[in-house]
Every structure is written in structure tokens, then in C-alpha cells.
User: Which sequence fits this backbone?
């Protein structure tokens, strides 16, 4: 028989946090610490954007282990931080670095070559982080349109590449892109 977990009202409550309630700092040990409303410090919090592609600055979920729990759950959410860009300077810089590390999307500046092997497409691109090879299994499952000119490509290894403006690509790149799409 299946086991069901009962959810109490406290478990289901969504807690919104304002920038004044949250402080981030990097300890001497190199780990990040988040102090929430002067009542709890989360060691090595996980930060996730609620809408990383369409509205990355709106809300950040602060997750981690509750040091008060005997058997901490790594995915426990402590709250949604709104207007995170209004954090104090030190906290904002830490959050920016943590989010950059988590949501690394190199921007495609040029498509250098495109070839096909056994149903796979190999695309060599120049990005803002250097030349990369993108292997695509099925473009229908790995390409997301984010508006009329923006495209997000996910390669076979789960890496994401952002084409911010298709029209800004050179003609040869746009021609190769149409073969991918």
C-alpha cells in the first residue's frame, strides 16, 4: 500500500523575505552563510531563481539544511527573497557570484560550423566564454524560444547556450541556425 505524507498548514506556507531581512556573508572557511530575519543562519544555502529565463531578478528561493533539525533535509525552502538586487553591497555580490555559477549560460556570438553524424548535430560556436562544441540529439527537445529573437539551446550534456538576438548574428550563422531549428 502506498504511503502518503500529511502536509500541515505550516509546511505549505510560502514565506516572502525582503532584502532588509536577509544577509549573506562568506566565512573564513570559504562557505556562504545566509542569516534570515536574525532568527536563523543557513550554512551553504542553495539559491535558485524562480524564473531564471524570463524574470531572473524577481525572486530567489533560499534553500538548504536547517541546523536545528536532527536529520536535515537539503531541499528545505526558508523563503523567497524578493528584490534581491536591493540587498546590501556585500550580500548582493555574494548572491550574484552564486547565481552566475549556478546559471552559467554562455552567449552565442557566432556559429562557426555545423555537421551531422549518425543523427547527431555537432555545432561549433564562438561564445562570450570562448569556442565551444555543442552536440544536439534532437533540436525539437533541446531548443527553447524565449520570444521572437531569443533562443536557448541545451546540448546533449545539459549545458545551455543563449542566443540573445538571432538577428544580431552574421548571415552565415543565421543560415546554419535555420538548419538546426
Assistant:
Amino acid at each position: 500500500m502506498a504511503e502518503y505524507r500529511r502536509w500541515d498548514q505550516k509546511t505549505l506556507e510560502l514565506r516572502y523575505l525582503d532584502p532588509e531581512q536577509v544577509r549573506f556573508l562568506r566565512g573564513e572557511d570559504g562557505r556562504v552563510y545566509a542569516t534570515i530575519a536574525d532568527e536563523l543562519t543557513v550554512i551553504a544555502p542553495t539559491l535558485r531563481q524562480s524564473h531564471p529565463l524570463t524574470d531572473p531578478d524577481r525572486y530567489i528561493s533560499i534553500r538548504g539544511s536547517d541546523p536545528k533539525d536532527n536529520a536535515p533535509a537539503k531541499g528545505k525552502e526558508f523563503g523567497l527573497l524578493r528584490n534581491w538586487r536591493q540587498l546590501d553591497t556585500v550580500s548582493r555580490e555574494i548572491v550574484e557570484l552564486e547565481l552566475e555559477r549556478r546559471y552559467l549560460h554562455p552567449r552565442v556570438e557566432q556559429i562557426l560550423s555545423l555537421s551531422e553524424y549518425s543523427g547527431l548535430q555537432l555545432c561549433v560556436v564562438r561564445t562570450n566564454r570562448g569556442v565551444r562544441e555543442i552536440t544536439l540529439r534532437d533540436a525539437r527537445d533541446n531548443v527553447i524560444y524565449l520570444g521572437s529573437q531569443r533562443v536557448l539551446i541545451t546540448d546533449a550534456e545539459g549545458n545551455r547556450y543563449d542566443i540573445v538576438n538571432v538577428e544580431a548574428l552574421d548571415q552565415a550563422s543565421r543560415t546554419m541556425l535555420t538548419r538546426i531549428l
User: Anything to note?
Assistant: The chain has two domains: 9-102, 108-180. The radius of gyration is 21 Å. The longest strand covers residues 108-117.
